[in-house]
Amino acid sequence: MSSSSDILIENHLRHARYISDILDRRMTSSTSTTRSAKHAFTRQVEEVKTPKSDINALILDYLTLAGYPNAAAKFSSEANLSPQQPSSAISARQQIQTFIHKGEIENAIRAVNDHDPSILDEDEPLHFALLRLQLVELIRKSRPGGDIGPALEFAQTQLGPKAPRTPQFLEDLEKTMSLLVFDHENLDPSLAELLKPELRKKVAIEVNKAMLEKQSQRRKAAICHLVQMRAWSEDAVRKEGKKDLPARIDLGLDGDELDKPSAIENGHEPMITT
Question: Both ends of the chain: CA-CA distance in Å?
Fold first, then answer.
């Protein structure tokens, strides 16, 4: 590969091909030697044959909505599927998520506003979350022993006027300002969470959802909805107690002998499009 980005794209593609192959094998694998030992419900599931093209479409949908433009473009070409969004729209979301994950919140806010100013204008909680995260990054840079002036000024001018509007805003600001007082090596767990990468990830996800909504797209990938629907259905049927189900129903992605074919591991197997 010529660069780290090429390696990342190939990794996304490898995972996409891997999952596509697993799901396809799960949908088509039922041998006579093991069939009699399987639960009746499991046999019914195996009799449902999902087209490979439908599986690939689910994976492309995820790559598109999660913001992987190059992987989505290559996967759609390999799977003989039409792109679900222009690469430019996916790239815009990807760039903003990258800024947030790197802690470059000012750049992220500027990029969101350049893309569509109404996103933050119409979503005050999201705007506040971004500004609060920017304050966290300013405080992070000022410790230990640095200049806390920029963080104080930012809090007063950007967050101070917004905080009194809701109790949650005020609580979040007060909690964040506590980072200026306490030693970052011995923080209370609730404060330490503000400095962990998970907060950046959480805000990045919410920004991506807001941008998708503005693009008249679903906020979640279809495969996420399917997993949630499956979990809800299983729970409802078990509570009703009228249908015999196996003690455990796996999604089938937990790595057994079907999950690690050598052709998938090396990432070079061409997509099956039939």
Answer: 29
